[in-house]
Design goal:
Elements (H helix, E strand, L loop, with lengths): L1 H18 L1 H7 L1 H24 L10 H35 L1
């Protein structure tokens, strides 16, 4: 579930980044897309490692595991958005100081 959420967030961010070029540059959506894409890549590698260990790539059978993975995915999305927001604030603060 974590992989699904981060891949969906990465896809939406990348599509919006290329659809609205001027707004995306101002909002630094490339950074957000890079963070979400990196997280999706990380979870993909984790899924392949789980497969090689004999576990399923993505666990969708056990509801408690799905809920835990969904919560972790939401935490990853919020943390990525928080780091992106801090980066935006820092960028605006440095522009005003110069």
């Amino acid at each position: 579930m974590t992989l699904i959420l981060t891949a969906l967030a990465a896809t939406v961010t990348i599509v919006f980044r290329f659809a609205k070029q001027k707004t995306a540059e101002k909002l630094r959506l490339g950074l957000l897309a890079l963070m979400y894409s990196g997280a999706a890549l990380m979870w993909t590698v984790d899924g392949f490692a789980a497969m090689f260990a004999g576990e399923p790539f993505v666990e969708l059978q056990n509801p408690s595991v799905v809920a835990d993975d969904a919560f972790l995915g939401i935490c990853v999305l919020f943390l990525g958005a928080a780091i992106w927001a801090v980066g935006l604030i820092f960028k605006k603060a440095t522009k005003k100081a110069v």
